[in-house]
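[step 3/7] inverse_fold.run input=structure_tokens len=239
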């Protein structure tokens, strides 16, 4: 390329890329990313020469982080609220058996919770599990209660800054069970999203961008710019 043979250099670069892709594909072909995601990423780091970063902070241990997160997430004066009038006294079919089977059959590889039930196990056992899980989900929604096992989570501390120095510099990422996350998605899609799309007259969600479909920080920035532009056009003296 320095000698001006640009076309030959570009053709050679294409051949090199294809050769690298072919060899990498051969090395990764024996790994099922849906089951062995951890092994796939380990092989990827070896191929690219990247090392997994481990942040070690002096004076901060797993036990200290555990006590810190337990302290900030525990309310000593908490009392379970009484059931609201919207809680039904009988089990209602909020989730059909076909929908539950379809959810289990299409589970993607994800992190395992404390119950040690991986997504691939639930996906393969969907023909056996879907009826029992359908009843369990409907009972949970009808009675307004959540199994205690679904509330338990393992916390992965992720540094907020490159060089964390205190416990507050770590962001807790809670990993609940796969079934707990399935329940959350069902409740959000079936109850929360419809409430946001057709809110009561006493509530206005026009300026809410988080925790709603099609909402994002980009949409919030666009709305702010639109408000500022309209304000300046109506009141040029503010410029």
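[step 3/7] decode complete -> sequence:
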């Amino acid at each position: 390329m320095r000698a001006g043979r640009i076309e030959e250099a570009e053709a050679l670069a294409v051949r090199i890329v294809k050769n690298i892709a072919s060899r990498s594909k051969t090395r990764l072909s024996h790994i099922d990313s849906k089951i062995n995601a951890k092994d796939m990423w380990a092989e990827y780091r070896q191929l690219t020469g990247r090392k997994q970063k481990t942040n070690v902070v002096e004076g901060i241990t797993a036990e200290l982080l555990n006590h810190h997160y337990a302290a900030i997430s525990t309310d000593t004066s908490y009392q379970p609220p009484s059931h609201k009038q919207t809680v039904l006294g009988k089990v209602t079919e909020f989730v059909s058996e076909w929908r539950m089977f379809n959810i289990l059959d299409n589970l993607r590889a994800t992190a395992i919770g404390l119950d040690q039930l991986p997504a691939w196990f639930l996906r393969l056992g969907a023909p056996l599990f879907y009826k029992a899980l359908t009843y369990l989900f409907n009972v949970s929604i009808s009675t307004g209660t959540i199994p205690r096992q679904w509330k338990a989570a393992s916390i992965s501390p992720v540094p907020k800054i490159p060089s964390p120095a205190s416990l507050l510099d770590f962001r807790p990422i809670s990993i609940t069970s796969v079934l707990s996350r399935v329940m959350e998605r069902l409740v959000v899609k079936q109850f929360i999203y419809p409430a946001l799309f057709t809110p009561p007259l006493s509530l206005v969600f026009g300026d809410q961008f988080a925790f709603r479909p099609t909402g994002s920080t980009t949409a919030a920035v666009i709305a702010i710019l639109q408000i500022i532009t309209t304000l300046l056009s109506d009141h040029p003296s503010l410029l």
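[step 4/7] annotate
The chain has a mean pLDDT of 81.
Residues 64-73+86-197 form one domain.
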